[in-house]
Amino acid sequence: MVIIGLVSVLGTAQNTTNEQSNKHQIAQEIQILEEIIIGDFSRVPVLEVIKVPEKDWIVDNWHTNRINAYEDTQIKFPVYVKFKDSVFTSPILKKKVITSHFGWRNGSAHKGIDIDLHTGDKVVAMLDGKVRYVKWNNGYGNLIIIRHFNGLETVYAHLSKQLVKANDSVKKGQVIGVGGASGNAIGSHLHLEVRFQGTSLNPEYFFDFGEDNNIRATESWVTKKWSQPFTQNSSRTENIDVYRSIEEAIKNTEPSITYHIIKKGDTLSFISHKYQISVTNLCKTNKINQKTILRIGQRLSVN
After folding, report:
1. I need a labelling partner for 264 at 20 to 30 A (CA). Which of 147, 249, 284, 291 fits?
2. List of residues 6+ apart from 12 with CB closer than 8 A
């Protein structure tokens, strides 16, 4: 997107009749681009021209029979998310107690948060939207997925009852189901996920689950970190600093973990799940195939 912004300015420069001025402007823009590459954003007014296009997310990849409507999509970070309101409705109608956060838990990725409730408690939509998926899933149990107008989806799992159907329009605060312990659940609770184009993101990056139900920022940029459970601890809330501009997000993007060291019991499937990289890409990156025998101590690139 930075390059697009620069190209639009360069296009203006090319229309300049003064050739010397044109060359000088191009030289300045090349210098700014070089500074961006090395991480210096002190002279980047051209970024201000970037506009995020509006999109009708309700019709985009609309599938009512797939949990993930974007199976073939790999999103590009940072991701821009905009809310029309500054508050959300709590998904349960009593004090929220988070018993497990987004993060690495017992050797696997916990891609949402668990909120304590009793079987029979009402579960409500957090935001206005349209119900995309209402089915049973072995892991999630009775499951509801709602697509919202900014592209986010909220996922409500382990319900005892589903009270809406696919393609229903819902308002925030509307009762959509009843809490329970269906599927792979130990005790009654609500498993809540937030997804963008099929990728799970830490719900607490967007939503403050305190008493006031505040949305942390009406406009924010999300870096890849917030999609990676293995970088976070499910036993606590992470320190969250919301990025309100693309410049801020880029400057604070942490380098990806480069290598995974093979340990006893590791499989390509386990590594793929942990680092959120497909087995196909894992094999392609490391020039191996799915039948390759992994050796303890071997390093695999997981970029």
Report:
1. 284
2. none
Tell me how far CA of residue 35 lies from CA of 41, 161, 248, in angstroms.
7, 55, 15
216 pLDDT higher than 80: yes
**Among residues 226, 224, 206, which one has the least CA distance to residue 214?**
206
Rg (CA), the chain: 22
Determine the Cα–Cα distance for residues 180 and 157; give it in Å rounded to an integer: 9
Bridge partners for 98 per DSSP: 115
Output the CA–CA distances (angstroms, integers) from residue 43 to 28, 30, 107, 301, in the order listed. 10, 12, 44, 35
**82 CB burial (10 A radius; 0-12, 13-18, 19+):** middle
The pTM of the full predicted model, rounded to 2 decimals, is 0.73
CB neighbour list of residue 278: distance below 8 Å, 6 or more residues apart: 272
- What are 268-286's pLDDT values in tens digits? 999 988 887 889 889 988 9
- Extract the tokens encoding 69: 């409507």
CB within 8 Å of 167: residues ≥ 6 apart: 64, 130, 131
